[in-house]
Amino acid sequence: MTIAKTGNISPLDPAAAEPFYRQIYDRFRGAINSGLLKPGDRILSARALTKELGLARGTIDTAYSLLAAEGYIQARGQAGTIVTPGLRAPVASTAPSFQSSVPAVSFRPDSILPFQMGLPALDEFPRKIWARLGARCVRAMQPSDMTHPSVYGLPALRAEIAAYLQVSRGINCSPSQIFVTSGYRHTMELIGHALLKAGDRVLVEDPGYPPTRELLEHMQIAAVPVAIDGEGMVVAEGLKAAPRARAAVVTPAHQSPLCVSLSLPRRQALLEWAARNKAWIIEDDYDGEYRYVSRPLPALKSLDREGRVLYAGTFSKVLFPSIRLAYLVVPEAQVERFEEVSQVFAAGSPELTQAIVTAFIKEGHFARHIQRMRKLYAERREATTAGLESVLGNYLRIDPQPGGMHLILRLQDKRSDRRLVARMREEGLYGEALTNWTTGGGGASALLLNFTNVDSRRTAELLGKRILQLL
Amino acid sequence: MTIAKTGNISPLDPAAAEPFYRQIYDRFRGAINSGLLKPGDRILSARALTKELGLARGTIDTAYSLLAAEGYIQARGQAGTIVTPGLRAPVASTAPSFQSSVPAVSFRPDSILPFQMGLPALDEFPRKIWARLGARCVRAMQPSDMTHPSVYGLPALRAEIAAYLQVSRGINCSPSQIFVTSGYRHTMELIGHALLKAGDRVLVEDPGYPPTRELLEHMQIAAVPVAIDGEGMVVAEGLKAAPRARAAVVTPAHQSPLCVSLSLPRRQALLEWAARNKAWIIEDDYDGEYRYVSRPLPALKSLDREGRVLYAGTFSKVLFPSIRLAYLVVPEAQVERFEEVSQVFAAGSPELTQAIVTAFIKEGHFARHIQRMRKLYAERREATTAGLESVLGNYLRIDPQPGGMHLILRLQDKRSDRRLVARMREEGLYGEALTNWTTGGGGASALLLNFTNVDSRRTAELLGKRILQLL
């Protein structure tokens, strides 16, 4: 036995091709995989092992870091370092998963929590098709695909996005107006660099998606909260509060998080204001595809005759979040400005990811997937609503809403949504508190629960019962 | 024949499942692939076709955009729209390449120009191994790999980078100090958000990598140019010019573009200054691995006892640029600040790319690849130098240098490097002019030519003869 819990490690081989840290790593891994070291076993501290082996402390730290990152060991402060409790036995050595290239050890519990916000139905994603396209694209890689990619995005992908937006969201734009980004934050940053400056004021929805306010604040831009009613942002109120605002960030399809749609008069009022003041409207269309009561509404951008709307779309919700691919549509007159800013700041997205998505769209999988998900989400939404209402109906009221990926559960009796959410997290349930999405933390108390990964009414009832015990 | 050069297109099918733009696209593609339309043939303008078909202009534009993005057609201004000249006949329908998911048409000429800067030897990249790992990773994707990835980077990748930096660059750091980014620009932007503010002054190398100055200027940070001599940045001069500078950006391994190494006394002077003034040193180690006369120098970061150095590394040069993966090592005391900023601004990199790189490193391909490239580049550098000198020796002098990926050819007789570079680009040769890397465009005249893709002395001679004709 080369590794003991309390010492007696045999000397390393200075002549080996493998560096010391790797030899140490290999020994621990071997000992754990072979069962010599068992979950919960305490191992030598890095300090002690350093002394034992007479090596640099950094060498040991590196080996331990690798082991920890891959889930083999855990540092427990005063209690020392132990082999990760509950570590599963090696299953197979040929199927590495993303989180670790050590296939033998699964260390991450299923990381999707019930009701987790912002996730599409990951169990229903066509992974086989995706893997086929991915394997094909990675095999087809030629030297000319390995040079610096366009910082605006892969031309073929930009063209596919333009075509998709026309058919699906009523947006008429050319591929040159489309800038591929790595996500909403990157999109917002690009807009900030191109069109806004420190000290500007920008209207935001209240309640609204918290990262929008955070991003603006970090760019030294003042976010002016504007209330939401049944028609979406109360535009007149916002214009009164900040008539010289430089921009407004809105979620017209399904307001985030209240899911109401911005009414046509409000859309027109915003467009008129923007045209009159040369201000910008940033349309965050994060899940416009998911409307269940009627056809998806055309985007606000489709009404933009004066070139004032910047449209932010994303593949996070219609494909999956770890793809890190989103896009921005800019008015024709702003293309040059955004090209200039992209040349300075944009790094470009990996060509492989862009190639896979291009093939996925072009071959029709994308349109089919969205259609399937729209149907599935309508069912899961109904099942989740019914299941939760049957158990929790006396304590909360579920908002009716035309689309989106989450439910809004209004708490009765002035219960604190934050307290409930904190308790839910302790129990392995995910929920968000509406008051955390509201300026100053005030306003109505409600739970935001994603329903896209709840597979049946039965599951919803079971989850509802777990919530009931926490009320 | 459904598409004529001058009209007579048959009506589209409104009952078809395919939207109109796709029907138009399909017809043109079919006509081109079948040879009905030939390279150089003129096709109807979008305006004329709109009228002909009685459809919305946007529908035709979308179809034409797709065709243009995929290289089938080209708009030629007044001359109208034509089928791309030189379009090759369909070769195979099962090997799509990245730039297009239409496998039948190759529209992009080999996009690597001789001497193109910043590119590794793409012909020698182990593409088969890469494709195998890529296919394996994409097949192994589980729902838990599809959620939002860590904005700091995949834990297993951060651990591998930390281990690699210790062995290869002498840097002792924990995985938590490593932040995965999408490239140098993204890295610099993160540093800007975390540690700098508008109005700050930052020392930069002169001549130096132009994007560094551009980025700083766009962040409203004043770049203070500091001269380079045989020992790298003349630190004393910089400190005299801007004693209260908040940071210095340096390329210590091989100064970009002059390839000299920053001497130890200069490194110490920088470190002392930074410690005394609580300033930051940003070490851009873009190609530190590629040194041919001796072992690679340890990074400046390896001498950083006071936690003042931010180390920027990248996979663009040691793997390939279109991977869009780089990283930043921050001092331990700054980890929290960078985590905070990453939470706001970082979008995260695609999990797939990170998983492939992790496997590539862990299985030893990375270390082997760098070793092979170091040997290959030493050979190619020698061959390129010999080949160019034999032809151009009377007109220019090649700087001796210990490492890097490009040669510096000093032009004699006050010839303009810019004029020469412009002529070279017209002739399909890539070169950069040293004066474009110098503040105010002054300084010595020299060509910067990448040698990593020049495969032999014979090739270098041929390329040299083409340059000779342009002198």
Description:
The structure is a homodimer of 471-residue chains. Chain A has helices at 20-33, 46-53, 57-69, 127-139, 155-169, 184-195, 210-218, 235-241, 264-277, 335-345, 351-362, 365-392, 417-426, 457-468, and strands at residues 42-43, 73-75, 81-83, 178-181, 201-206, 222-229, 232-233, 247-250, 280-284, 309-314, 326-329, 396-398, 406-411, 432-433, 446-450. The model of chain A is unreliable at 1-8 and 89-110 (pLDDT under 50). Chain A is 38% helix and 13% strand. In chain A, helix 4 (127-139) crosses helix 11 (351-362), helix 6 packs parallel to helix 7 (210-218) and helix 12 crosses helix 14 (457-468). With 471 residues, chain A is α/β, with parallel strands linked by helices. An eight-stranded mixed β-sheet of chain A has the order 4-11-10-9-8-5-6-7, with helices on both faces. The first copy, chain A, has three domains: 2-90, Arc Repressor Mutant, subunit A (Orthogonal Bundle), CATH 1.10.10; 127-363, Aspartate Aminotransferase, domain 2 (3-Layer(aba) Sandwich), CATH 3.40.640.10; 368-468, Aspartate Aminotransferase, domain 1 (Alpha-Beta Complex). Chains A and B meet through helix 3, helix 4, helix 5, helix 6 and helix 7 of A and helix 3, helix 4, helix 5, helix 6 and helix 7 of B.
